[in-house]
């Protein structure tokens, strides 16, 4: 979907008040078990038409191949949170269940923030491993 950027998206992506973003919500599973619900926010001006096409698993390849935007690195902030009702339902657990929130900002080669990815991860039976280069 597309919408005007909210305050968190404007801050994370260095956007003006009037700018729009493309929001992608995905449910990630390991086998049959949903473990991560993520919301990606992208500046619409950088990714025209992305909201209309199929969304591949590997978005960074799409960014580079179709839009000429190479992700050079990413910054992540992690925090323990309690799941809200919508996210808990998507993950098949009770509201209030603990989760790991990962707030990732992906940066292009010139240091421009081009993607915010907010992930909520169930970690009771799995671990989060980060190897960003």
Task: Report a brief summary of the structure.
By secondary structure, the chain is α+β, with helices and mostly antiparallel strands. It has helices at residues 7-13, 59-67, 85-91, and strands spanning 2-4, 20-30, 33-43, 71-82, 98-108, 113-121.
Give your account of this protein's structure.
This protein has 133 residues and is an alpha+beta fold. Helix content is 17%, strand content 43%. The chain has helices spanning 7-13, 59-67, 85-91, and strands at residues 2-4, 20-30, 33-43, 71-82, 98-108, 113-121. The protein has a six-stranded antiparallel β-sheet with strand order 1-2-3-6-5-4. The longest helix has 9 residues, at 59-67.
* Model regions low in confidence, pLDDT < 50 over at least 5 residues: none
Would you tell me the overall average pLDDT?
93
Oligomeric composition of the shown chains? single chain
Instruction: Compute the CA-based radius of gyration.
Output: 15 Å
Largest sheet: 6 strands, antiparallel
Q: With helices defined by DSSP (H or I, 4 residues minimum), what is the helix count?
A: 3
């Amino acid at each position: 979907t597309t919408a005007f950027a909210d305050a968190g998206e404007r801050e994370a992506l260095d956007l003006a008040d009037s700018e729009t973003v493309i929001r992608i919500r995905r449910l990630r599973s390991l086998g049959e078990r949903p473990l991560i619900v993520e919301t990606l926010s992208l500046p619409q001006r950088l990714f025209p038409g992305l909201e209309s096409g199929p969304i591949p698993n590997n978005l960074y390849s799409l960014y580079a191949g179709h839009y000429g935007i190479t992700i050079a690195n990413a910054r992540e902030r992690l925090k323990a949170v309690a799941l809200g009702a919508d996210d808990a339902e998507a993950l098949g657990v009770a509201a209030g269940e603990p989760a790991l929130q990962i707030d990732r900002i992906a940066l292009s080669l010139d240091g421009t923030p081009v993607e915010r990815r907010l992930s909520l991860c169930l970690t009771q039976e799995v671990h989060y491993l980060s190897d960003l280069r």
